[in-house]
Amino acid sequence: MRDVTINKIIAIFLSHQGCPQRCIFCHQPHITGVALRTEVTPEDVRHTIECALAEPRSQQKGVRFEVAFYGGTFTGLALDVQEQFLHTVQAYIQRGDITGIRVSTHPRMFDDQIFALLNAYSVHLVELGVQSFDDEVLRLAQRGHTAEEAEQIIQRLHAAGIEVGIHLMVGLPGDSCVKSLFSTHKAIELQPACVRIHPTLVMQGTQLEQLSRAGQYQSLSLETAIILCKEMLRLFQTAGIPVIRIGLQPTTSLERHLIAGPYHPAMRQLVESAMFYDMMETACIAHPFADQRVVFYVSPKDLSTARGQKNANVIKLQERFHLQEVRILADDTLPRGQVRRE
C-alpha cells in the first residue's frame, strides 16, 4: 500500500490589513472572527507555525505544511512588513519544516519591488481576489481594478514563475449566470493552479447590507447558487483546474453576522451532490428500466454525497422516475466523481 502525503496549510489571518479599500461585500472580522484591529507580528507567525508543527497527529502522519497569509491584501502591506513576514517563514523552509508560502492579495497591488520580493522568498502561489471578469460587476462591487488589469497581473505572475489562484464570486450586484460563466471561461483561459468559488453573502456592517435593506440588491437563492456553482465546477473539472473551495469557511462569527444570501456550511457537498444527481438522472434516461428498481455504484468516499443530504437524491430520483427503490452502493474500483449503473 503506497504512502499518501498529507498536505496542510498553516493559515495566518491578516484581517483587512493592506487592503486599499473595503469592497461592498467585505467584512473580514465578521467572516473570520478575527478582529479588525488585530495586529499580527512576526512573533505571532512563529508561534502559529510552532503550534502546527508540534501537533502530535500531524507529526505521526508526516504532514507537509505550507504557510498562507489570508484575510487581507498581502502585497498592499508596507514592503518592510511583507519582508518581515516572509523572512520569518523562510527560516522554516530552509530547515525543511515548511514547503512554501502562498499569499492572497488584490490584483492592483503590485509593482517591480513586490515582484522582486516574492521572487526572493519561497512564494510559490499568489491567490488573487479577481471576483469577476466583467467590468460592470467589478465597478459595482467597488473592487478598484478592471478585468484587463487582473488578466495582465496573472500573466505577469506566470512569467515570473509564480502560480496563481483565482477567486471568483457569483451573485454580486450586476452579475448574472451568463456573466459568471463568462468569468469561468476567462479564468480557464488563464490556466490558474487553483480556483475558489464564493456565492455572495450579505454580511452585517457592509455596503451590501445597506443595498439589500433598501431593496436595491437581491441575493441568489441557495438553489440558484448551487446550480450555478455546479456548472462552474463542471467546467473547471473538465479543464483539469482544481476548485479548492466552494463557499466561505463556516465560522461562528460568519453565521452570527450573516444577513442574507446562499449560505450553507456544506456548500461544496451540496454542489457535488447536485452533480451526482445529474449523472444518475442521465443514466436513468439513457437506459430504460426492467422494473421499478435501480442500483448505482460510486466510490466509497462518494456514498454520502451521491445519496444527498437526508437522501435527497434518492428521493428525487424515486419521484422523477416513479421508482420503488433506488440503491446507491460502494464500489472501491470506481474513481471518485464517477457513477456506474447496474
What does this entry look like structurally?
- 38% of the residues are buried.
- The chain has 14 helices and 12 strands.
- The chain starts with 6 loop residues before the first strand and ends with a strand.
- Helix 2 (42-54) runs parallel beside helix 4, helix 10 (222-238) crosses helix 12 (267-286) and helix 12 runs parallel beside helix 14 (312-321).
- The model has no long low-confidence stretch (mean pLDDT 93).
- It has 2 domains: 7-264, Aldolase class I (TIM Barrel); 272-341, GMP Synthetase, Chain A, domain 3 (2-Layer Sandwich).
- The chain has helices at 28-32, 42-54, 56-61, 79-94, 112-120, 135-140, 147-159, 177-189, 207-213, 222-238, 252-257, 267-286, 303-307, 312-321, and strands at 7-13, 64-70, 98-105, 123-131, 163-170, 194-199, 202-203, 243-246, 258-260, 293-298, 325-330, 340-341.
- Strands 1-2-3-4-5-6-8 form a 7-stranded parallel beta sheet. It has a 3-stranded mixed beta sheet with strand order 11-10-12.
- The chain is globular, with a radius of gyration of 22 Å.
- It is of the alpha/beta class and 342 residues long.
- One of its GO terms (biological process) is tRNA wobble base 5-methoxycarbonylmethyl-2-thiouridinylation.
